[in-house]
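INTERNAL TRANSFER SHEET
From: sequence group
To: structure group
Subject: TIGAR bisphosphatase

Please process the attached sequence and return the structure record in the designated field. Keep the field labels unchanged so the import script can parse them.
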Amino acid sequence: GQGVDEPLSATGFRQADAAGVFLSNVKFTHVFSSDLLRAKQTAAAILGKNKWCRDLEIKCDARLRERKYGVAEGRPLADLKAMAKDAGEQCPSFTPAGGETLDEVRERARDFFEFLCQLAVGLGQKEPEGPGASSRSSGASKEQFFFPWANHGSKAEPSSEGGYSKMLDANILVVSHGAYMRNWLGYLVSDLNCALPADLSKSQLSSVSPNTGVSHFLVQLEDGNLSKPEVTCVCLNQDSHL
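Return from structure group:
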């Protein structure tokens, strides 16, 4: 939750370093993190292993915080499940006293995603600098980015040959929390019809990401149209680095 702002454990730091090594050859244009300490430390560890953008500013945003669990925060997961059972409900739909509903979390996720889309459109509409600068239909020169996947097909297996490349206006790293990200995915799938990997099962779709699990989405905004983003999930909760 939000109320107990503990740092990463020794295991957490090892996992964050492993994620950093896995993403070390990915050049990010922006980094956003939850303002909770464990997320900020994870983002810093990932950048610390990066070959291209170790000095990139980490921008913290409260909209990326974990779901608020009210009276259940700081207590074992078994206590939350017991509270839900006593209320005749099941996790994760159960909302403890003082906690956020799933709809409230999804609204935070929607708000932040729309902010990212506006950011990307603003970058895409910038004029190229200098004489002879290359330009595309958006009015900006795009940059080629490399990702640690063999391709962007359904399985998105890690590549031993440097991964695949993609021309993008922005390549954004977002570091958040498990329950929050599951709600964000729900928004992308239910509201935006996000295209999913063909081999993704229903149980995988509803599962919580492991610590430092990596999910990769491509977002296309045709002609800067913010109302109709096309979202493709390349991979979900990738944990091959752990």
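Handover comment: The first strand starts at residue 30 and ends at 33. The beta strands are 30-33, 58-60, 143-147, 164-168, 172-175, 214-220, 230-238.
Transfer complete.
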